[in-house]
Write a structure and sequence with these properties.
By secondary structure, the protein is of the alpha+beta class. Helix content is about 35%, strand content about 25%. It has eight helices and 14 strands. Helix 1 runs antiparallel to helix 2 and helix 6 runs parallel beside helix 7. The protein is globular, with a radius of gyration of 17 Å. The N and C termini lie far apart (about 35 Å).
């Protein structure tokens, strides 16, 4: 089966590259914007078009496989992860960046078997960076092997996070208070590039020492989670416990020490899991 998964991964890279070309072409056109759950939760016709393109390409080649896609879920399909080979897709991670032409936009394609992520492909298309990770086979960017920073001292760390799209004042208060607590440890700094997948890949490259966020979804982190672990990093729950793909929260860190230290500062935000049945 191992070689079959490699063939799937090669196909995933090919599809991500094609999708990235569509996204980059769309950046030169007028972008029509629609709202989802809040005035800051955006979706565009390109998100929908790219997801349809990715899913139809993969379905044609692997008709028995399952899919969880951001826009399909938004349109009412479920996001239950089964043991069946499942492609977990975010057609444009960083839609707000895309709308504003802020140059960090990624196509994220994760692939899980028996509920475990087998490989991940994240294509940061404006930068032309193709990040890949395969369980037991390492992580790469444009063919170069990736390695986390290995930093264990949180006071020497740079952390990436996001402010998210929820505009509930209580949620914003928690998010800012978490940042304040981390800054006061103190740490070197906090950055945000506007896409969970790229933030996690930056941890895999060693450019950032950790990333944490609550309120994201399985399609934001599936692909990048295996890229981080294969680059030598750790992926944890926001509590410091084992990572749960459907929990909508994550800490990705270069070392367990930094990941667990961040978890001690985080005030948890209540979230509805991705696999909660919405009847």
């Amino acid at each position: 089966m191992a070689d079959h998964w490699q063939e799937c991964m090669d196909f995933g890279v090919q599809v991500a590259r094609q999708a990235g070309a569509v996204v980059c072409a769309a950046l030169k056109e007028d972008i029509s914007v629609m709202l989802k759950s809040s005035p800051a939760d955006l979706v565009t016709a390109t998100d929908q078009k790219v997801e349809e393109m990715i899913i139809s390409s993969i379905k044609e080649k692997y008709p028995s496989h399952s899919f969880i896609g951001e826009e399909s879920v938004a349109a009412g399909q479920g996001s239950t992860l089964t043991d069946n080979p499942t492609w977990i897709i975010d057609p444009i991670d960083g839609t707000t960046n895309f709308v504003h032409r802020f140059p960090f936009v990624a196509v994220s394609i994760g692939f899980a078997v028996n509920k475990q992520v087998e490989f991940g492909v994240v294509y940061s298309c404006v930068e032309e960076k193709m990040y890949t990770g395969r369980k037991g086979r390492g992580a790469h960017c444009n063919g170069q092997k990736l390695q986390v920073s290995g930093q264990k001292d949180i006071t020497k760390s740079m952390i990436v996070t996001e402010l998210g799209s929820d505009r509930n004042p209580e949620v914003i208060k928690s998010i800012l208070s978490n940042m304040e607590r981390l800054l006061c440890i103190p740490i070197h700094g906090i950055r945000a590039v506007g896409t969970a997948a790229v933030n996690m890949c930056l941890v895999a490259t060693g450019g950032a020492d950790a990333y944490y966020e609550m309120g994201i979804h399985c399609w934001d982190m599936a692909a990048a989670s295996v890229i981080v672990t294969e680059a030598g990093g750790v992926v944890l729950d926001a509590t410091g416990g084992p990572f749960d793909l459907m929990s909508r929260r994550v800490i990705a860190a270069s070392t367990k020490e930094i990941g667990e230290r961040i978890s001690k500062e985080l005030q948890l935000i209540p979230l509805v899991r991705d696999d909660d049945k919405k009847e």
